[in-house]
């Protein structure tokens, strides 16, 4: 297994040009059809020609492996369709293999399902197959990330400091992103974790990677040898238990919360707090599409190995290519990170609210409450993240738990009213802070009422809307003036 990709490839100027290699089967983008002499392979698919490629591919998702194999033998166009690895990923997940935590990864979903070696892979010349649907995923899994992550405009750069005091964080920085370059150097995991060391120590531990639970050995095989447009991302919230790690300051612990972020008010919930820490491991190109973190929490994200490119927008921004439903419960963005970068990065970068930065190994990034962010790994990497509630964001979190109760996530099922639970705990242990949080909440509501009016006939609508979109005002600080 090759664990050693070039660690500085994202800084390499020679990788600037979008040097996408040719598709291994020779499949071409649709546009090439109009310049090509010779036969168009699509002409041979008979009555299936009435279906657009998108629909044809959707149809294949319903087929079993035998049908898919046989259909692929009928003609070159259908062969190209039946080779699409996403279809085989579906078959893998639905088969017995999908429930296994340990198996041999063979470089593609198809090869893994069919148990094929490299030599046994079919190589048929499909150079007369013209299809964006078949070609695009290949382009997306081969884009040169450095063309998006370099030349960050100075005004967009996320601020960088060696470290911050809690006073500075609370007073000036709790609502802004920043990167700390000398904050996690003393963590034992910063010094000792590499993909290789994790493999030797935790190879048999089963971790969650999106829809699958795989041993670290299987995940690493997959991670180091796949062509997926959106590679499966290991994102495990039970990692500390699974790896028997102690967290917090003290003898023999793995890491601790940086001091600068101060007290985390969700700690008042003890074991009843929502999921809040994750181990994140993924290959180059993996990452997180645009989202806001759950329950209006803030977060820190520490890179142990690798490098992550972050592009962020304040809570009230409208992010190009990201559509948010009226009640903000649904976020629709292009299917993959690569597609977003290809289509929307240039436009997004020009917006004055845009913030960008690269968080390198040994550095930690602060994600303020409700900020939009997209993250992409520029190298194979390991990260740790924790979500927390700083005092200055208590109003936002209370507001979220109260007014967006349908969007609250991460609590155990038996916790039916997280807002009440949190308020009770604050009342018992931090009554002064609760009063301040409720004051912030009332202020948000007052601002909201000032905008939508407050007559009774609109009461219900306001109630609905107040669980809805958020927006800011031109006066004062944009984040301060956000309304939920
Ligand atoms: O490291 C990443 O991919 C970012 C993770 C993230 O944004 C999150 O955990 O909410
Ligand atoms: Fe996030």
Automatic annotation (TrEMBL):
It comes from the Eukaryota. Pfam families: Cupin_8, F-box-like. Residues 45-91 form the F-box domain. One of its GO terms (molecular function) is cis-regulatory region sequence-specific DNA binding. Residues 228-405 form the JmjC domain. Gene3D superfamilies: 1.20.1280.50, Cupin. One of its GO terms (cellular component) is nucleus. PANTHER family: ARGININE DEMETHYLASE AND LYSYL-HYDROXYLASE JMJD, JMJC DOMAIN-CONTAINING PROTEIN 8. This is Clavaminate synthase-like protein. It comes from Parathielavia appendiculata.
